[in-house]
Design goal:
It comes from Streptosporangium subroseum. Keywords: Membrane, Transmembrane, Transmembrane helix. This is ABC-2 type transport system permease protein. The chain has 10 helices and no strands. It has one domain. The radius of gyration is 18 Å and the shape is globular. Helix 3 runs antiparallel to helix 9 and helix 6 runs antiparallel to helix 7. The relative contact order is 0.15. It has about 220 residues and is mainly alpha-helical. The longest helix has 29 residues.
């Protein structure tokens, strides 16, 4: 499994597909932190960053899973002695890439972006929100990958349309039962994140896990 993950990460790096989401990440971070965030607003800034970067994490996940052509994926399945190990290795690789990108999003404002260092509790909350974000983004990108949606146009429509749908649904009364992106932004801005976080995290992780399970089930019937 570890060797297969390394192989997928190396193939992704060689393909230069990582450049596209990295450019998107860089542009978003520049926009977020073009002016210094005043003291006391670090958590709300992290919450907004986590919510808006879901689409970048999805883009990176889709790019990694699309790196290998169908024939190579079949070879990898054979080498892994079954499709589940190959599919799982792909998801782990996507999570590793997105963890790296999330680390950049968390560390950059500590270097330039925050007028003052956040308190440790807010830093940990910010890390937690980015973990939720990358989990949802990885699942969304997987469901928009070439193995599931062979048409590039349909794939991009599902990726970006799915992200917009997440935002819109989270604005409705049923938002707390979906991926609550806007709700965690609002809670952080209102200083109410501590009480709301367990429920918001449970909903986000549930849908991220459901998306990944659905992806695995679909992939078992196609290379």
């Amino acid at each position: 499994m570890i060797h297969l993950v390394r192989f997928k990460l190396a193939a992704y790096a060689r393909s230069h597909r990582l450049l596209q989401p990295m450019i998107g990440l860089t542009v978003m971070l520049i926009l977020f932190y073009s002016t210094l965030i005043p003291p006391g607003s670090e958590l709300s800034s992290y919450a907004d960053s986590a919510g808006l970067l879901i689409v970048v994490f999805a883009w990176a996940s889709r790019g990694l899973l699309d790196t290998e052509p169908p024939t190579q994926r079949l070879i990898s399945m054979t080498a892994a002695r079954g499709p589940v190990r190959e599919i799982t290795a792909g998801l782990i690789s996507a999570l590793v890439v997105n963890l790296g990108m999330a680390a950049i999003a968390i560390v950059m404002p500590l270097i330039h972006g925050f007028a003052a260092m956040p308190v440790p509790a807010d830093l940990m909350r910010g890390i937690g929100l980015h973990v939720l974000s990358l989990s949802v983004g990885t699942a969304l990108g997987a469901l928009a990958s070439n193995a599931i949606l062979p048409s590039p146009a349909v794939s991009m429509l599902v990726l970006f349309g799915g992200y917009v749908a997440l935002l819109l649904i989270s604005l409705t009364p049923v938002g707390r039962f979906s991926v609550p992106v806007v709700l965690w932004m609002r809670a952080a801005n209102e200083g109410a994140l501590d009480g709301a976080l367990p429920g918001l995290a449970a909903a986000a992780l549930f849908w991220a896990a459901a998306g990944m399970v659905f992806y695995v089930r679909l992939r078992r019937t196609r290379p």
